[in-house]
Design goal:
The complex is a heterodimer of chains A (288) and B (319).
Chain A lengths: L2 H5 L6 H7 L6 E3 L6 E3 H6 L15 H8 L6 E3 L3 E3 L11 H12 L5 E8 L2 E8 L10 H17 L3 E7 L7 H20 L4 E10 H4 L8 E4 L5 E2 L3 H8 L10 H7 L4 E2 L5 H12 L8
Parallel strand pairs in A: 6-7, 7-8, 8-9, 8-10, 9-11
Antiparallel strand pairs in A: 1-2, 3-5, 5-6
Helix pairs in contact in A: 6-7
Chain B lengths: L9 H19 L5 H20 L3 H8 L7 H8 L1 E5 L12 E8 L2 E8 L5 H6 L7 H16 L4 E7 L6 H5 L2 H14 L4 E10 H5 L6 E5 L3 E3 L3 H9 L5 H8 L3 H6 L5 E3 L10 H20 L3 H14 L3 E3 L1
Parallel strand pairs in B: 3-4, 4-5, 5-6, 5-7, 6-8
Antiparallel strand pairs in B: 1-2, 2-3
Helix pairs in contact in B: 1-2, 3-11, 6-8, 10-11
The chains are: A alpha/beta (288), B alpha/beta (319).
Chain lengths: 288, 319
C-alpha cells in the first residue's frame, strides 16, 4: 500500500473490505442452542449441530446422499411429475406454487426415491423434502412412494422412508387424501410378503403422512427432537384452550407413549439401520 | 329466524310458517282457504326447487352439517333389524363418536359401523361432535376383523368433522389408529361398502372409508380439510370458507366427475332432513345393489379390484 492510499478517507477503502467479506451463508445459527456455526463443519456432521446435537432439517437428496453407499445408486420414478388437474387457486395459483417450489429445491415434487445399499445391505430408500411445499403429500408423492414399495417387494429388499411433512397437500384436495389410502394399502401388501419396512420420522411428521405411511413401519424410528403427530400443536391448543405439556409431540414423548420403537441420532443412522435391516432379512452382520 | 333452517333456507321457512298459520285459521274459521294453502304449497315447492338447483359448495357444506340431518343411528334404525351395538376397543375405552355392531340388512347378517353425532347439547358432548379418538378407530377395526372372521359384509357410514385434535388422542396414537385402519381395510377379506351421509372430514373420515364402493348422499361433503381450515391457512382468513369450499371441490357432483367416488345417492327435495323416510329408501336401494354386486364376487377377485382402485388414485404425468 502506498503512502497516498494510507491517507485517503475510509469510505474509499470499502473496496478492500468487500473482498474480505464472508461469502453469504458461510456462517449459520443453530435453532437449538443459538450458537454461531461454521456451515461446512455442520455439513460434515450431517446437519446436526456439533455443539448441542440439534437435528436440523435436511433436504431429500442430501438425506439420501448421506444415507446410501456411494456406489450403485439408482433413482426410481423420477419421471413422475405433478399436474394441476383441479386448477386450484387460492391467494396464488397451485401451478405457480409448484413452479416456485421446483425452482427453489431443484426437485419436481416432495419425495425422492433411490435404490442402493447401506453398508452393503441392499435397500430402497425414500425421503421427503420439507422445503418443497412443506413436504406435503399429493399424487406424485403417493405414486413415487408406491413405486418404491413395489420395487422393494419385487426385489425382496427392505424399504426405508424418511418422512418430513406437514401432511396432505391441500391444493390437490381429495386426491391428496386418497394418497393416504393408496400408500397404506401398498405397505399392507409389502407386509404380507414379509419384506421389512423401516419408517424414520424426522422433523416434522404430521397430519396425513403421519396417519398413513409414517406410522406403519415394522420398526418406527424417530430422529431426536422431531415433532410427530396427527393434529398440529396450534390446532390442539385452539381446541383444548390450555398450554400443551413440555415436549408434547416430540420424538422422546412418542417413545414414552409407545408410538415409536426407538430414537436414532442421525450420525448413527447408517450403521444402525444397516444392522437392523440385516437382522430383519437374516443376513450376516454388515461390516461397518 | 328459525334455527332449524339455514340462512338460504329461510325463505322456505317463512312460506312454511305462513302455510301453518293458514291451516290454523282454516281449522278455526269456516272459510275455505284450502285453495290458498295449495297455491302456497306449490309456491313453496318451486321455491325450494329453485334454491336447491343452484346451491354453492359452501351451502352444501352447511347442509351436510344441518342440525336436523339424519345421523348414522337414524339410518340404522330405519334400514337394519336385530341391531346389537358392540362397544369398546378392548384396550382403553368405548368411544361414543363411533357406533358399530351386528345387524341384519334385508335379513342378511352384516356388520355396520358409523360416526355418530349428538342431537342435543348433552348428547353432542357425549358423542364429541362425531370426532373420534383412537379408541373409536380401534373399535371400528376390531369390528371389521370380526366381520372378516365370520364372512359378514361391512357397511360404514361417514359423518365427522374429523378425527379429534386433543392431547389424549395424540398420546394414545391417533395417527397410528387411522393408518392401521387404512391398511387393514385395504386387505379385509369381505366386502366393504362406504357411504358418506354428512361430513366426510379428512383422515378421520377416510379411516372408515376404504372399501369396494364409495357412495355419497347428494348433499354430503368429502374433503381433505374443512373449508374453514383451508381458508385460514391458504387465504389467512376463515371468512373465505366459501371460496375454499369451491376450490376444494367437496360436493358429491364434483367428486363423481373427478372419479373419486362411485355413486351419488339422491336426496329428497330440500335435503335428507326434510324427508328422512324417503332418504332411507333411496339409501336402501343403493346399499342393496352394492351388497348384491360384491357378495357375488370371489374374495380374491374382490381384493384385487379394491387394490387396483386404490392404486389408481392420483393424477400425475410421466415424463
Amino acid at each position: 500500500m502506498s503512502w497516498f492510499e494510507k491517507l485517503v478517507p475510509s469510505r474509499i477503502r470499502t473496496d478492500a473490505t468487500t473482498k474480505r467479506a464472508v461469502p453469504e451463508g458461510l456462517w449459520m445459527r443453530c435453532d437449538g442452542c443459538g450458537a454461531t456455526l461454521y456451515r461446512p463443519e455442520v455439513e460434515r456432521h450431517e446437519d446436526v449441530c456439533p455443539k448441542c446435537s440439534h437435528h436440523m432439517r435436511m433436504g431429500a437428496r442430501r438425506r439420501l446422499d448421506s444415507f446410501l453407499d456411494e456406489d450403485g445408486r439408482e433413482e426410481i420414478a423420477a419421471g413422475v411429475e405433478p399436474v394441476d388437474v383441479l386448477k386450484f387457486r387460492d391467494s396464488k395459483k397451485y401451478r405457480d406454487r409448484l413452479t416456485a417450489a421446483q425452482k427453489a429445491t431443484g426437485e419436481k415434487d416432495a419425495l425422492v426415491v433411490m435404490q442402493g445399499r447401506v453398508h452393503g445391505v441392499p435397500v430402497v430408500a425414500a425421503a421427503f423434502d420439507f422445503s418443497f411445499m412443506g413436504g406435503s403429500m399429493g399424487s406424485v408423492v403417493g405414486e413415487r412412494f408406491v413405486r418404491a414399495v413395489d420395487t422393494a417387494a419385487r426385489e425382496g429388499i427392505p424399504l426405508v422412508c424418511f418422512s418430513a411433512s406437514g401432511g396432505a397437500r391441500m391444493q390437490e384436495a381429495l386426491f391428496s387424501l386418497m394418497q393416504m389410502a393408496k400408500t397404506s394399502a401398498a405397505l399392507g401388501r409389502l407386509r404380507a410378503k414379509g419384506v421389512p419396512y423401516i419408517s424414520v420420522m424426522t422433523d416434522p411428521t404430521m397430519g396425513g403422512v403421519s396417519a398413513s405411511l409414517a406410522m406403519l413401519g415394522d420398526i418406527n424410528v424417530a430422529e431426536p427432537g422431531a415433532l410427530i403427530g396427527f393434529a398440529g400443536p396450534r390446532v390442539i391448543q385452539q381446541t383444548v384452550r390450555e398450554t400443551l405439556p413440555e415436549g408434547f409431540q416430540r420424538a422422546e414423548f412418542l417413545v414414552e407413549k409407545g408410538a415409536v420403537d426407538l430414537i436414532i441420532d442421525r450420525r448413527q443412522m447408517r450403521q444402525r439401520l444397516a444392522s437392523l435391516m440385516a437382522m430383519m432379512t437374516r443376513r450376516p452382520a454388515p461390516s461397518l | 329466524m328459525n334455527p332449524d333452517f339455514l340462512d338460504f333456507e329461510q325463505p322456505i321457512a317463512e312460506l312454511e310458517a305462513k302455510i301453518e298459520e293458514l291451516r290454523y285459521v282454516g281449522d278455526d274459521a269456516e272459510v275455505n282457504i284450502q285453495e290458498e294453502i295449495s297455491r302456497l304449497q306449490a309456491k313453496c315447492k318451486s321455491l325450494t326447487e329453485s334454491i336447491f338447483s343452484k346451491l354453492t359448495a359452501w351451502q352444501v357444506a352447511q347442509l351436510a352439517r344441518h342440525p336436523r340431518r339424519p345421523y348414522t343411528l337414524d339410518y340404522i334404525g330405519r334400514l337394519f333389524t336385530d341391531f346389537e351395538e358392540l362397544h369398546g376397543d378392548r384396550a382403553y375405552a368405548d368411544d361414543a363418536a363411533i357406533v358399530g355392531g351386528m345387524a341384519r340388512f334385508d335379513g342378511q347378517p352384516v356388520v355396520v359401523i358409523g360416526h355418530q353425532k349428538g342431537r342435543d347439547t348433552k348428547e353432542k358432548i357425549r358423542r364429541n361432535f362425531g370426532m373420534p379418538r383412537p379408541e373409536g378407530y380401534r373399535k371400528a377395526l376390531r369390528l371389521m376383523r370380526l366381520a372378516e372372521r365370520f364372512r359378514l359384509p361391512v357397511f360404514t357410514f361417514i359423518d365427522t368433522p374429523g378425527a379429534y385434535p386433543g392431547v389424549g388422542a395424540e398420546e394414545r396414537g391417533q395417527s397410528e389408529a387411522i393408518a392401521m385402519n387404512l391398511q387393514v381395510m385395504a386387505g379385509l377379506r369381505t366386502p366393504i361398502i362406504c357411504t358418506v351421509i354428512g361430513e366426510g372430514g379428512s383422515g378421520g373420515a377416510l379411516a372408515i372409508g376404504v372399501g369396494d364402493r364409495v357412495m355419497m348422499l347428494q348433499y354430503s361433503t368429502y374433503s381433505v380439510i374443512s373449508p374453514e381450515g383451508c381458508a385460514s391457512i391458504l387465504w389467512k382468513s376463515a371468512e373465505r370458507a366459501s371460496d375454499a369450499a369451491e376450490a376444494l371441490g367437496i360436493t358429491s357432483a364434483r367428486l363423481k366427475e373427478l372419479g373419486l367416488i362411485d355413486t351419488i345417492i339422491p336426496e329428497p327435495l330440500g335435503g335428507a332432513h326434510r324427508n328422512p323416510e324417503q332418504m332411507a329408501g333411496n339409501l336402501h336401494t343403493a346399499l342393496a345393489e352394492a351388497l348384491q354386486t360384491f357378495s357375488a364376487m370371489d374374495t380374491d377377485a374382490l381384493l384385487e379390484r379394491r387394490y387396483g382402485r386404490l392404486m389408481g388414485y392420483g393424477e400425475y404425468k410421466e415424463g
